[in-house]
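Example record for the data management plan.
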Amino acid sequence: MKRQRGKKSSYTTSIPTSHWWQVSVLSLLGGIILLYPGHNVLINEVFSTQDKRPSNMLGIPPIHPYPINKTGIYPGEDVTASGVIVLDAESMVYMYKRNETMLLSPASTTKILTALVALDAYALDDVITVGRVENDGQVMDLVEGEKITVENLLYGALIHSGNDAAYALADAYPGGRNAFIQEMNRKARAIGLSGSTFTNPSGYDGDTHKVTPMDLSRLAVAALGNKTVMKMVAIPQITISDIYHSRFHKLSNVNQLLGKIPGVAGIKTGWTEDAGENLVTLVERGSKKVIFVVLHSKDRFGDTTKLIDWVYGNYHWVDVAGTVGSTAP
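Corresponding structural encoding:
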């Protein structure tokens, strides 16, 4: 039926008066059913689904198993390091701390931060032309004018601990070396390294180039979140080249525990006369990840081995969210 323009339609629908009482009764019954979820399959299903959502969908962080010392035994003087941290990287529980806020020289463990800053600034396939070469200490034997990818410089810095690689990455940064070092300190504060200061990208000793064991453990946690860094630090040896494949560099990991201690997956060594022997280590056994930091040690590999044996001989992990305690593998 067409409606005339400008006039109200006379078309209406109506329900016979004799049926109004039926409609009213049905509406009342429908309301009772909707308000009584025990008999409403749809409502029950909605509530059931909400109650059974995983905790991460509710915005609650997952609860990781909690490490418990089952013997009450702790490291003694046979661990020679001045600064020690043992951290369960999943629950973020500190299992052991020694002089955790003492300022110590980091040596080449600095290169963990250097790598993270470089990865923020460059793509792995970016090409850097090496300028003035830093030939002091451990080097990968870069030459001035060599064109090499950021990825291969990172291999040189993290596997071989090449000081020349660290400086090449810093010198190519927008604003140069000083700007790179400023960004190292900004990055350090951003990831919670509140007590440490960095004055160079390689780890040379300096009056103000210092870290605390606690901060170094936090730096290791930040590195765990970077797949590129963690892949590189676990490689025992590799040969890389410049972009023309005319100059080759054979790189060997300084970490003697790789391939020797089950579960060791990196992370970084360091040594200078002032720093002594330093080592940051990740051990991954089963689902358990533990970070070990030893600074100013007389025997970094021996100290770390003792700490690893202590953890897996004296700790078990308890599932505080549910039920089961599991002995460390």
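Summary line stored alongside the record: Residues 67 and 317 are 4 Å apart (CA to CA).
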